[in-house]
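Q: Hi! First time doing this. I have a protein sequence and I read that you can turn it into a structure. Is that right? Here it is:
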Amino acid sequence: MAPQSDLIDLEKKLLEKEEKLEREKERLDKEREELVHLKDEYREKLQRASGLTEEEAKRILLSEIEQKNAQIVAKTIKEREEEAKRTVDKKSQEILVDAMRHGAINYIAEYTVSTIKIPDEEMKGRIIGKEGRNIRAFENATGVDVDLDEEGIIRLSSFDQVRREIARRALEKLLTDTRIQPFRIEEIVEQTKKEVEKVMFEEGQKLAHEVGVYNLPVEILSVIGRFKFRTSYGQNLISHTIEETKIGVYMAQEIGADSNVVRLGCLLHDIGKVLEGEGNHAKLGADFLKKFNIPDRVLNCVLEHHEDKPFSSVESAIVYTADAISGARPGARQENYEEYVKRLKEMEEIAKTYEGVSDAYAFEAGREIRVIIDPGRLDDSQTILAAEKIREEIDKKLTIPGEVKVTAIREFRAVSVNS
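A: Yes, that's right. Below is the predicted 3D structure, encoded as structure tokens:
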């Protein structure tokens, strides 16, 4: 019987605890309701005291927090700006110096020569041919001018350095050939053209691979291969392009710009210099590259690398800077000072020979000449014609890399003074 009574007692105790817990739960629920009621009362009192609704109070509180945070952010930004000002010059110098160091190249440029030595006057006579027919055939086939006035030397003259290289190679072959006649000359020149075209394609491919660019169209590779035979003020274009690309890519990587855009922009920026056509070489190059779906950002690097138009991206500015570093560094360009001054004077003298020209000034390294027109001697249409004639004569008589811009200024002034 004892076990049964124990179970009853235990059951009673459990029931008592349940009743006690239920009463406690009811008490807590009542207190919670009272707390909620008190909270609502205090909220209403606060709203009456402040004259603000709950939403308005929240907005004011958030506004105060934002103002406080804004002051902290502004202070932090100002501190960072001051720190940047202290370190920007030093960091810029470090980036540029490192970029120039990375621009060191191992490429050895081959400069095309314009003179060929001949063993004797008899060989010169064979080159000239009966009544000059051989030399005329050679000039027609190669598109270069041949000067035979100097003893022991044949001098080749042409603004197009590729043509001059073809002529040089072809002439060297003719000097060892026993059959120098117009037909044979044309045959050798055609063979030499194919050889040089192959060389240019291979050089273009090597140049692209050297700077880390692959899968360019064959037509573009063939054109940039002409850089091998092209110089700008004594600086070979392949050397300049490799150097500039290395400098530009390093700068892009340092400042977080798109190094692939810079790489392609540096490689192609001077392609217009080896293309035939009228106009600025930057525009010539961009127009050519558009045919091959080159990205717009790269085309802009080509168009803007001489600041002919404002920079559209940081990559364009980097290509411009790298180009300037490579071209302007000491020793990059080897043009003789006397020859440079002589060319500028010759440009001015050519312009001054024209009727109605009162003065002329050549500048921009010979890329531009300003011509002052006497308004009493030439009208507007005659001024335009004179500018075109001057440009044509400069192109014909002087070897100047790139485009020459002739600006003719005709200004008429009438002054009346009341005495």
